[in-house]
Design goal:
There is one protein chain. By secondary structure, the chain is mainly β. The chain contains 6 helices and 43 strands. It is flat and about 100 Å long.
């Protein structure tokens, strides 16, 4: 059966499409016509939504068009993505608490008219966006091709001509994706739809009814036909799809099935759809329709293939040498499927969606070295692990300075901000002697007025622990010190306080820290300032070196010769599959000792050859140095395999002490 997962409302920024207020008709070329849709967004969350042009922290906006004709729901057009550039902060969704600029405030709305959303210079391709995480590439190509059509909603005129589509119903849809909304878990309500009608040539659009908020357009099918069944399908650690279907009796036990599957925000996408019946009926008259990717988008537009057999029908994407170009069902897109069968809803066993991409593989578990043991230098040993999954490769690394770290303290004691800091907004941050946690100075926001913002940023490299002291003297509940790590808000403080310490951390890689003072539309209290002091980073200085960059599929060990004597060694391993990697699995710290060859046969380093050593050899008997579980100490003759010669050698030494 279809499975679904409820998603609880989560605090944070939450962008929706509050209205679809207008459309633009740009004309036609070669039987195709170009449109764009105006979108008014709203932030219904309890944190501001980032809206910073030219960075990874602004919304991208999709525009789509749908048709219901003769019982078949189809996507008939889609645009490239509008990259947003500034938030106006109006109030169509409630009381607005925000300013013009790079944030969409609480309860605020931002209007992008259809002409702006059709501006080709600000349109980017869909393939650069991970809708589930909100991540995208801000530097995007612009659409290519016909100057009238490029990048806009392109639809075949034959699909919208009223004379050729009697009784058809149409809808437009807007869809916002942005990183901080996704990080807060609020990416499931970002699409809204509205009914439209078309006039005769030049096929201008007339808006009908009102915008249906927080629902993708596939819900319109059920709204006009309650016999339609819609279920949600959530891929683990990924996004959501909707499966909609209607079965219509043809008489004599035969049924006609219409299905539409909408990928709301799944990055994995859908590569195969299977319908199973419990009565063995073989479907016939199988069909499929997709929507045109255009203007330089990399998808190849190849129709899916279908196969029908007893009790089953399935459709699957045609592979492409470039997986990113295959015509999988990607986010904010709907594909349609239909067939006839001597099977009705009572015979439906399941509808299965197979992801197109594979998700992150499971992390392996290090089994040797596990920490605490001593390894001799200049002697080959096998790093072994329990593979998290088959059919993946593994990257293995070692470190000879596993516990090395350093601390940096920035007290802002200079007359200007230290190097590396950037600042902006309506006024720059500076250093001041007005207040400090220690020393003579601290950092303070620039002097700003109502509805203004002052920010300071620093780029740091992790992994690192972060701490700093802050003090606020502002209007309580209204004028805020905000602190963000990579656009995720971690502090939101107003009012008057003494010095308070913040503690946090960042993972490996480059991260942006941002402090800002954000004032509302009226009233100032206290010093009307926020202060930062004694910023500390405790960063790892560990240097990791590949033992092997990528092992063979199904490998569970790899040979390695430690060379540097020391007690801060670690090894780690992670799994790789396609473009996904698992977390690193790390052993404990162990010591590499100056390496005379250990006492031959003393596998457990007990000082003599005994039953425990014999048991260890027998446990590894028959293994070679390419196998998981191989024990180099049991390979007494260094042949690369543990065999009868090694057993004979150990038995000859049995009961003797080590020198």
């Amino acid at each position: 059966m279809l499975w679904c997962m409820a998603v609880a409302a989560i605090a944070g920024p939450d962008v929706i499409v509050g209205d679809l207020p207008n459309t633009s008709n740009y004309g036609s070329s070669g039987g195709q016509r170009a449109y764009s849709v105006g979108t008014t967004s709203c932030n219904i969350g309890d944190f501001e939504l980032l809206w910073i042009s030219g960075t990874v922290n602004h919304p991208v906006i999709g525009q789509n068009m749908y048709r219901l004709k003769n019982g078949r729901f189809q996507m008939v057009g889609q645009s490239w993505l509008k990259h947003a550039f500034a938030a106006v902060n109006n109030g169509i969704c409630g009381t607005c608490d925000g300013n013009l600029g790079d944030r969409l405030g609480l309860g605020c709305s931002d209007p992008y008219g259809s002409s702006l959303n059709g501006s080709q210079s600000r349109l980017g391709p869909k393939y650069q966006v991970n809708a589930y995480t909100g991540a995208f590439i801000p530097a995007h190509p612009t659409p290519s091709g016909n100057a009238t059509l490029a990048g806009r909603i392109i639809v075949e005129e034959s699909d919208i001509d009223p004379a050729q589509n009697a009784g058809a119903t149409y809808w437009i849809e807007g869809h916002y994706i942005t990183p901080d909304d996704a990080a807060a878990g609020n990416g499931y309500n970002n699409a809204s739809y509205r009914r439209i009608t078309f006039g005769s040539s030049p096929f201008n659009i007339t808006l009908q009814d009102s915008t249906v908020r927080e629902q993708p357009a596939i819900m319109a099918w059920q709204a006009v036909d309650p016999a339609v069944v819609i279920s949600s399908v959530d891929f683990p650690s990924d996004g959501r799809c909707y499966v909609a279907y209607k079965a219509t009796s043809l008489g004599g036990g035969n049924w006609h099935w219409e299905m539409a599957i909408h990928n709301l925000n799944s990055h994995l996408g859908v590569g195969k759809v299977t319908v199973n019946f419990d009565n063995g009926a073989t479907p016939s008259n199988v069909g499929f329709s997709d929507v045109l990717y255009h203007s330089g988008e990399i998808q190849d537009n190849v129709d899916w293939t279908s196969t029908a057999s007893a009790g089953q029908v399935y459709w699957q994407v045609v592979p492409n040498a470039d997986p990113n170009a295959a015509n999988a069902l990607r986010w904010s897109t709907t594909y349609s499927y239909w067939f006839d069968a001597a099977a009705g809803p009572a015979n439906l066993d399941s509808i299965n969606l197979k992801p197109f991409r594979t998700g992150p593989p499971a992390a392996p578990t290090i089994t040797f070295p596990t920490g605490g043991e001593m390894l001799p230098a200049n002697q080959t040993t096998n790093v072994t692990w329990n593979a998290g999954e088959p059919n993946v490769t593994y990257q293995v690394q070692y470190s000879a300075n596993a516990n090395d770290s350093s601390m940096t303290n920035e007290g802002f004691e200079s007359a200007s901000l230290p190097g590396g800091f950037t600042t902006g907004g309506n006024a720059n941050w500076i250093t001041t002697t007005q207040s400090s946690h220690s020393g003579a100075r601290s950092a303070v926001n620039g002097n700003i007025g109502d509805n203004q913002l002052s920010w300071m940023e620093l780029e740091v490299t992790g992994p690192s622990n972060i701490s700093f002291w802050y003090r606020t003297s502002t209007e309580s509940g209204f004028d805020f010190l905000n602190f963000y790590v990579d656009a995720v808000q971690d502090l939101h403080v107003a009012g008057s306080s003494g010095w308070v310490q913040y503690n946090g951390s960042v993972s490996a890689g480059t991260h942006t820290l941002r402090w800002e003072y954000d004032k509302d539309f009226s009233v100032s209290s206290g010093e009307d300032n926020v202060y930062i002091d004694d910023l500390e980073f405790t960063a790892s200085n560990v240097i990791w070196t590949d033992i092997i960059a990528e092992t063979a599929v199904d490998a569970t060990s790899t040979p390695w010769t430690p060379t540097v004597v020391g007690n801060d060694y670690q090894v780690r391993v992670r799994a790789l599959r396609d473009s996904h990697v698992s977390d690193w699995s790390t052993s404990g710290t162990f010591e590499v000792v100056e390496g005379a060859t250990p006492c031959p046969g003393d596998l457990d380093d007990s000082g003599g050859i005994d039953l425990a050593d014999l048991a260890g050899l027998l446990a590894a008997f028959g293994l070679c140095d390419t196998d998981g579980g191989f024990n180099a100490l049991a390979d007494l003759d260094n042949s690369g395999c543990i065999d009868l010669a090694d057993l004979a050698g150990l038995l000859a030494l049995f009961g003797t002490p080590c020198p």
